[in-house]
Amino acid sequence: MITMPRIKLKLRRKRRKIIKFRGKRYSGYGQVSGGHRGSGQRGGFGRAGIKDHMKIKYLKEGFEYGSRGFTRHAQIRPIFPINIGKLVYLALNGRIESTTEDDKLVINLSSLPFKKILGGGQVELPVKLIVPSDVLITKKAEEKIKSVGGEVVKAT
User: What angle do CA 13, 14, 16 make, to 5 degrees?
Assistant: First the structure.
């Protein structure tokens, strides 16, 4: 039987990182943090420090400081106001439904979302305005309609 002589191989080991840092006082872990153990270098959990040591980072990301409105707990009942001048303008241009009878422009508000008619704008031709019971109309708007020969009809 032939025996092979045993050859001892010497494997090169990976150079340890600590050897690289010999002579460096904190081995790349910084003086303040306390040697990379614990939570020293993190700077806090979550959004901690966004007003002091992380401020620039958060500003660059688009974060805005301060409160943002409030929570409304009441039921929202939208009131859509419109000036009488604008209402007549929309009717004349065909943006809202309107008809003509007896040389008067007839606007029925029951199918429209407007809940309040204000007195702004100019009314230059006679208008017949059919107003449902839930729609409010100001005195100034009524006066402008009546001054040019129009009328306001309160529907029930």
Answer: 120
